[in-house]
Design brief:
- By secondary structure, the chain is mainly alpha-helical.
- It is built from ten helices and two strands; from the N terminus they run ααββαααααααα.
- Helix content is 61%, strand content 5%.
- The protein has a two-stranded antiparallel sheet with strand order 1-2.
Length: 153
């Protein structure tokens, strides 16, 4: 193996796709397609090549399923369809028609995408309700001013 082979990135036509950001993880770190696929135990370059061979709708479904398994923050989950559509534009077309626009890639959400959107919405509503409830409980148990406590003794 020559030195240039040892340091060259595999399948460089896939690198724009693999290094695309998909959101912030629950630990605050940015996730890329490469890190998502690696965390799932897949060879990122092989999986990207496989996705490039699939029809657009199937590739989108595969990416949504993969990304949904990651510990992303709720806002990243809410925008998962737009994120997948954006990164699909970076995937080289090999044996399939190229996605012409973000709208084309997200026209008809699949049942899996609907389920993810519902889970994200419920999570957001529950977290908002929890924060509102905690705020009202804190306000109702506020300590009395010192002047009132001295008068009651």
């Amino acid at each position: 193996m020559s030195w240039s082979d040892a340091v060259a990135l595999k399948n460089s036509d896939l690198n724009a796709f693999l290094f695309a950001d998909v959101g912030v993880g629950s630990n605050g770190c940015e996730l890329t397609i490469l890190s998502v696929l690696a965390r799932l135990g897949q060879d990122p370059w092989e999986e990207a090549a496989r996705l490039s061979e699939l029809p657009n709708s199937r590739a989108v479904d595969c990416l949504v399923q993969s990304i949904s398994k990651m510990p992303l923050d709720p806002l990243a989950f809410a925008g998962i369809s737009a994120t997948v559509a954006r990164v699909m534009l970076l995937l080289p077309a090999q044996g399939r028609t190229r996605v012409q626009s973000i709208a084309e890639a997200t026209d008809a959400p699949t049942p899996g995408q609907w389920a993810i959107m519902i889970v994200c919405c419920v999570t957001l509503v529950v977290s908002l309700a929890t924060s509102l409830t905690q705020g009202s409980v804190t306000a109702s148990v506020a300590p009395l001013p010192k002047s009132e406590t001295a008068e009651t003794k």
